[in-house]
Every structure is written in C-alpha cells, then in structure tokens.
Amino acid sequence: MSRARPEQAGEAQAEAARYPTATVTLQGREITYALRESVRARQPRLWIAPAEGLVVTVPAGWTASQTERFLRQHQRWVLRWDARHARRWQTLPKRWPYGERLFYRGLVHGVQIRPGRVGAVEVAGGCRMIVSTRTPGIDGARRVLRRWLRAQATQTLAERVEAYGAMMGLRPRRLYVRSLRRAWGRCWANGSLSFSAALVMAPPEVLDYVVVHELAHLREPNHSPQFWNVVAAYAPDYPAHRAWLRTHGPLLAV
Ligand SMILES: [Zn+2]
Q1: How far is the CA of 247 from the centre of ligand 1 (A)?
Q2: Dihedral sign, CA of 86, 89, 90, 92?
C-alpha cells in the first residue's frame, strides 16, 4: 500500500464535509443527512461517511420529495443507524483522538505527531496537520493542539464578532474564548459574550452562525420568534448549522 493512501482518503473526506445538509422526520425522529447529487448515479444510494455520517447520493435532478420518498422506503435502515449513532454520541470520549483525525475549520485533517524542540502545529496540504511536541505521544500532542486551537479561535472569533457586530450594530462589552464544555456560546447579563474555542473546528459558516446567535442575544435575551428573526437576517441557513452542530458537536474536542 502506498504512503499516499491516507492523504487521499483525507481529501475525499474533506470533500464529503462540503455536501449540503438536509433533514427528514422519520417516525418522529429528525434525521440530518448530507445530500450529494451525482451525474453518474443511476439509483439513489445511502451510505455512512466517517466525517459526514449519513450521506444520500441521488441522481442529478432529483427533487426533494423524491429523496424523501426514497428515505421513507429505507426508514428502518436509517432509524437503526440513527439509534446506533445516538448511542455512540453518548459514549464517545469527549476528546481527541478518533483514529488520529481531527476537524479543523470544518475539514477532517489527518494528524501526524512528531518530536520537536517546541510545541507547534502546521497545517499542510491535503488536509494534513503536523503536530510537533517535546513530549511525543497523544497527551503532549493534545496539549499543543489545545493551545494552538484556542489561539486560532481567539483570533477568528474576534474578527467575526467585529464584522457581524458592525453589520448588526451591536458590540459586546467583552469577548471571552474559553474551553466551554456545555455550550458553544453564552451571552452574559452584563453584555459580554463567551465562545467555545472548539468552534474553530467547525465549518466557518457554523462559527459565524454561533457569533450571530450570541450577538442577537444582546438585543433579544431569549429564544423568542423575534430573536430567531434577527438570527435569520444574518445567518439565513441557521437550521442547517444547528443540525451540523448537533451531529458533529461531540467530535469538536481535543
Ligand atoms: Zn441562545
């Protein structure tokens, strides 16, 4: 087996991570899936991708109702997968590694650990991430990765809060980027906002949605219809972003 294989697999997954997501309700369960249109597909197909979870490949030109009918025909299979996935969600260790792959800005990166004089992270082509650590091994790499992700998150979140804040005419009193465990973001009564550093692992549009969500709380401190109207004005695809976080949230941890 050539050395190039894992990188190619990484790229294939990175591509998979870009499919749009959709939802269907089967027997009261809301199922999120990635929808892939393929000109080569004659028949629709269901499969499970490591990064995306449930992927539905449909022939080009298929309508939403054709896709939904196809999913209903296979709902037993889909619901069985969903139940297994939900169990895995609960039992998953809430930290990396998962087969030495890691989400970064929404793409699945293969992680290589190597000894180095200083802790450093380099993002290389082909969705590879090289972690140098003085203490080679998972624990050393995890410390380096956490520090690096937090620095990336702090910079990105400051930029996005500034950009959306300017558009929305809102400005937080202070901005904190933390390793929040139970929330992606939080709006404090004094007008400060906190965000989870793990958001930098999510796709940029998902991070933006959380920024818009927390900024919107500066105007509407609840989840009323008016609140969601404000969110929708700046993040129109927010239901898909919420679905993405529900599906992939547990994997956004180091
Ligand atoms: Zn909220």
Answers
A1: 18
A2: positive
Flag whether 96 is in a domain.
Answer: no
Give the pLDDT confidence score for residue 72 in this predicted structure. Answer: 95
Structurally, the chain folds into a number of domains equal to 2
Quick one: 73 and 134 in the same domain? Answer: no
Whether residue 116 is found in the same domain as residue 141 = yes
12 C-alpha to center of ligand 1: Å?
A: 34
From 175, 143, 179, select the one nearest 159 (Cα to Cα): 175
**Residue 110 and residue 197 in one domain:** yes
Of 80, 88, 126, give the one whose Cα is nearest residue 107.
126
> pLDDT, tens digit, for every residue of 65-118?
999 999 999 999 999 988 887 776 566 555 676 667 889 999 989 888 888 888
Measured CA distances, 12 to 104, 158, 252 (Å): 15, 31, 20
Per-residue pLDDT reduced to its tens digit, 182-211 = 789 999 999 999 999 999 999 999 999 999
Q: Ligand 1 centre from 111 Cα, in Å?
A: 33
| Domain stops at, among 91, 115, 147 | 91
